[in-house]
Design brief:
The structure holds 2 protein chains of 2 kinds. By secondary structure, chain A is an all-alpha fold. Chain A is built from 7 helices and no strands. Helix content of chain A is about 70%, strand content about 0%. Chain B is built from 6 helices and 29 strands. Chain B is globular and about 60 Å long. The chains are: A mainly alpha, B mainly beta.
């Protein structure tokens, strides 16, 4: 590995540790004695993030399904994390007796936070409304088919570009739910996703520079 | 079918009558009470009626050989092409039928047959159907399970590779303008389904416009939409739904925007908004409009949209737990409601032990419904369904809340012929498995818990395992073949029914005694 990416990776790890600590404090301070009933943010987050994760898993399946790649380790990590998290969110929705998929497009649940949306959130929600899939960052069918058709370095580069955009689209959702969900379990997972995907974003940005 | 391992293929009635097929008032939607069998058919001259309960092939008949004569009531055989048997779903169109195969993954010797793959049967002469061609695309050879489907408007035949249960990566599409001589339109090079990224099939179906083929898998939930606008180069337009309930049969509204997805464990139907896919949005998402379940341990097979008196319903057979067929009122798609359960007498909960005794040694599926067809989707008068072990059953459904059986045909058991029926999934492995479809919870309703599974299930299941070796019949993996598995959808062809059963192959049946058309 070249010196600069190595230094960058160390910085990322440190940053990740810091984010993880901040996340755990955020969660620890709010843990209730008895879990309250899920609110619309809990349900909306579980449904929307489950769907968002779904496409990330598809992208990793494409990359790991055949051909040559230098990103197998990264893709496996993303796939494992997100499949486990899909399982968590599915489990909650089943226990809450709520549908696994939302009934309509839109991210209205992000309007139901403890405080009115600030400028950044308002901008994110506008991006949601303007996006084909109702959430920013999703790859289009055409982009996924391009990923299927490529191989080697070209495919790695496209994978990183698509996954970077995908993670960027997920972060505001996770950030919001970590602070506004009713149940500690949801806040915990949202914080973990925020931390984990922020780390992966940094790593992917570095990798993209090297491809 | 549903799958057994998954995937194989799952009442009180308030009789506010609708006035026949042109009735102006919709059926009432009171909840079903359950517990009663559908009214039995009155069998006219020429019939060879069942000797036990409705739908049953009694153990005594299986032991004496009476089952090899079959059972018939107001339906008689006109013509047959048995060939090497068929797999789970085999469709027909025009004068042709397409007999699927269990495939080369389960039986590699099939690759060396003179006519491997899907067999094309020309039934232009109904009394003497003949083999016209065989289809050897990769999916056709590997086995299409429940995915081999016809799109009539575009005259296309499509299927995905399934093989043992859930396959990956192959999709074949054929032009069937000349139904007896299909021409494959896509080649592997142009198909764009790179291996093995996309777990596709177990089951599948066309959108009504024939431009999208939906493939579902039962492993971990998967659904894939394939754009077939250009059949020479199909492309994936959506894949996903990881963790969704095991996905099963697919039916769609005429506009292709709403998808009715049958689910297993729990048995039920999901109503999904797939307009993003149908409209080819850049990054399509699927949304959930509504859902209904009826048994946590059963397995909905497919859910056919129909309407009576202008009110929309689903006809949803279930392939587990002897649940039979559910009729679901979807006038409020957000709150679908089961309004009728159609069960044969042998399927009632009280006959669970009898069922277990009868079907032991005849494979994974007991007396289960699988695929149904109506004579027309608007104000249907007759419903024809294929069953495992109970043959083909036809019901008068002019009043869907008060159906009655009008005819049945359970073809002769092919006991001892396993070795010559290599394409039959029943005769090849499926028949050798212990019964897995029946947990004896039918009628228990959606709140059934694990505690209500009849303890006999465990004992019977375990007891079958060592006996398998002793009841393998003539083939190494055939089971006793004591009743056929008729899991394909029947098709109304004038006053006939065309259908394919796994062991008996293609059958052209004719209604007798004025049973149909219904006056």
């Amino acid at each position: 590995m070249k010196p600069r990416p190595l230094a960058g990776a160390v910085l990322l790890l440190l940053a990740g540790a810091g984010l993880a600590l901040a996340g755990s404090r955020l969660i620890a301070g709010a843990a209730p004695q008895r879990p309250p009933a899920p609110g619309p943010v809990d349900i909306g987050f579980a449904q929307a993030m489950r769907g968002h994760h779904d496409q990330a898993v598809v992208m990793t399946q494409i990359l790991l399904g055949g051909g040559s790649t230098r990103l197998a380790s990264l893709a496996r990590t993303i796939q494992t994390d997100q499949l486990i998290e899909i399982g968590q969110m599915k489990g909650w929705l089943l226990l809450w007796n709520k549908p696994l998929l939302p009934s309509r497009a839109g991210m209205d649940w992000m309007l139901l936070g403890r405080t009115p949306p600030d400028a950044a959130l308002t901008r994110y929600l506008a991006d949601c409304r303007a996006s084909s899939g109702g959430m920013p960052g999703l790859a289009s069918s055409e982009e996924l088919n391009r990923l299927r058709a490529l191989d080697g370095g070209e495919r790695d580069r496209l994978f990183l570009e698509l996954m970077l955009r995908h993670h960027q689209g997920a972060l505001p959702m996770a950030h919001f739910a970590a602070r506004n969900a009713e149940t500690a379990a949801v806040r915990t997972l949202a914080a973990q996703i925020e931390v984990q995907q922020a780390q992966e974003l940094g790593a992917m940005a570095l990798l993209l520079r090297g491809t | 079918m549903s799958n057994g391992f998954r995937g194989a293929g799952w009442a009180g009635l308030i009789l506010l009558g609708i006035a026949g097929c042109t009735g102006s008032s919709a059926p009432a939607t009171d909840p079903p009470a359950g517990g009663a069998a559908v009214a039995a058919a009155q069998c006219g001259p020429g019939s060879l009626p069942e000797t036990g309960l409705q739908g049953e092939v009694p153990l005594a008949d299986r032991n004496s050989g009476r089952n090899q004569q079959g059972y018939r009531c107001n339906l008689e055989l006109v013509g047959q092409y048995q060939g090497p048997g068929a797999s789970v779903v085999s469709p027909s169109t025009g004068k042709c039928a397409y007999m699927s195969t269990g495939g080369t993954l389960l039986d590699p010797l099939q690759a060396a047959e003179p006519d491997p793959g899907v067999l094309v049967v020309d039934a232009g002469n109904t009394a003497q159907p003949v083999l016209a061609a065989n289809l050897t695309g990769p999916s056709m050879l590997i086995g299409t399970w429940e995915s081999l489907k016809v799109n009539e408007p575009r005259k296309l035949l499509g299927g995905v590779a399934v093989g043992g249960l859930v396959g990956a990566g192959f999709f074949d599409v054929y032009d069937i303008s000349d139904c007896a001589h299909p021409a494959q339109l896509n080649g592997l090079g142009g198909t764009g389904l790179e291996l093995p990224d996309n777990v596709l099939g177990h089951e599948g179906n066309w959108s009504p416009d024939g431009k999208t083929y939906w493939a579902t898998g039962t492993a971990a939930g998967s659904i894939t939409a394939i754009d077939v606008s250009n059949p020479a180069s199909p492309q994936i337009v959506f894949t996903g739904l990881a963790g969704f309930p095991a996905n099963h049969g697919v039916e769609l509204t005429p506009d292709g925007n709403t998808l009715y997805l049958a689910t297993c464990l729990p048995g039920g139907v999901q109503i999904l908004d797939v307009s993003d896919v149908q409209g080819r949005k850049a990054a399509p998402q699927i949304r959930q409009i509504g859902a209904v379940t009826w048994n946590q341990f059963s397995c909905g097979q497919h859910a056919l949209p129909v309407s009576w008196a202008g009110k929309p319903y689903l006809v949803a057979p279930d392939e587990f737990d002897s649940e039979g067929i559910h009729i679901v009122d979807i006038s409020d798609p957000a709150q679908p409601k089961v309004v009728k359960q159609i069960q044969l007498e042998i399927q009632l909960l009280k006959n669970a032990q009898l069922r277990a005794n009868d079907v032991s040694g005849d494979g994974a599926f007991g007396y289960e419904s699988h695929y149904c067809t109506v004579d027309r989707v608007t104000d249907p008068t007759a419903l024809a369904c294929g069953y495992f072990q109970s043959g083909i059953r036809v019901f008068d459904v002019r009043n869907p809340l008060q159906p009655r059986e009008i005819a049945y045909f359970n073809p002769p058991a092919q006991t001892g012929k396993g070795l010559s029926l290599q394409h039959s999934l029943h005769a090849w492995i499926g028949g050798a498995l212990p019964t897995i479809s029946d947990l004896y919870t039918s009628d228990s309703g959606p709140t059934v818990g694990t505690g209500s599974i009849d303890a006999r299930y465990v004992g019977d299941f375990v007891a079958q395992l060592p006996s398998l070796l002793a009841s393998l019949g003539t083939g190494p993996v055939s089971g006793n073949l004591s009743a056929d598995w008729c899991s394909s959808p029947p098709r109304f062809v004038g006053d006939q029914l065309w259908v394919t059963c796994m062991d008996n192959g293609f059958l052209a049946l004719k209604f007798t005694n004025g049973a149909y058309p219904l006056q």
